[in-house]
Specification:
This protein has one helix and five strands. The protein is an alpha+beta fold. A five-stranded mixed sheet has the order 3-2-1-4-5, covered by helices on one side.
Length: 76
């Protein structure tokens, strides 16, 4: 089940970058740069208490930020 509080930043086929809510069919916003899209995803996730994920051009997760309750307890 998709967590509708989580947002993904990923590159589109036209080279622009999108911030997209998990499970959504359309992007929440589209930006010309990765940095702009990443900031938008973090803002949206922060407002909703979710997570923001940054996918690199190779499709792998490069960065992840959690806002609100972090379910995982970790040292450091």
């Amino acid at each position: 089940m998709a967590d509708k509080r989580d947002y993904w930043t990923q590159q589109r086929s036209d080279g622009s970058w999108e911030s997209k809510r998990e499970g959504a069919s359309r992007a929440s916003s589209v930006s010309p740069t990765q940095a702009e899209a990443w900031e938008k995803s973090k803002d949206l996730a922060r407002d909703r208490g979710g997570e923001a994920y940054l996918k690199g051009t190779n499709g792998q997760i490069r960065e992840r930020n959690t806002y609100g309750n972090d379910p995982k307890k970790s040292k450091g």
